Amino acid sequence: MHIRNLIIAASTCLIASRSLAQNDEGQYTKYRHFAIYAGVGPSYFFNNLTTFKDDVNPWGYEFSFRFMWEPKGSFVSLGFETGYYRIYSVERDQFRSSPTVRCFHEILKTILCKLVDGPVPSV
Predict the structure, then answer these.
(1) Is 11 part of any domain?
(2) What is the Rg, in whole angstroms, of the alpha carbon atoms belonging to the chain?
(3) pLDDT in single tens digits along all 123 residues of the chain
(4) pTM of the entire predicted model
(5) Number of domains observed in the structure of the chain
(6) Which range marks the domain in which residue 71 is found?
(7) N or C: which end of the chain has fewer CB within 10 A?
(8) Of the candidates 64, 16, 23, 22, which has an alpha carbon nearest to the alpha carbon of residue 42?
(9) 88, part of any domain
């Protein structure tokens, strides 16, 4: 019953916040060609190791940074993403291991549907 009330309250808040949105006709907003995204958060490793199963700490952390070039009126955006991801850590007697990933990705993003990604700005 408590979860049902929480879902109803969250849905009501989301609908109310959407209905209070202002109409921006006549307002000028500057279009920005570049976008920066940053993220920090915990990560959880689903443990399937059998050797050190009880000594594995599945909780880790991650940092990510994304820089995108989004040209006006285009369906394609270009950019790169880099990050640091700590997968898990193992500690047993004198043995310690914590595998990490440092990555660099090139990104090509396309808008498939205007309803999902929002309207494409006109030229």
Answers:
(1) no
(2) 22
(3) 677 787 888 888 777 666 655 555 556 667 778 889 999 998 888 877 677 678 888 888 899 999 999 888 778 889 999 999 888 888 888 888 888 889 898 998 887 765 555 555 554
(4) 0.56
(5) 1
(6) 29-117
(7) N
(8) 64
(9) yes
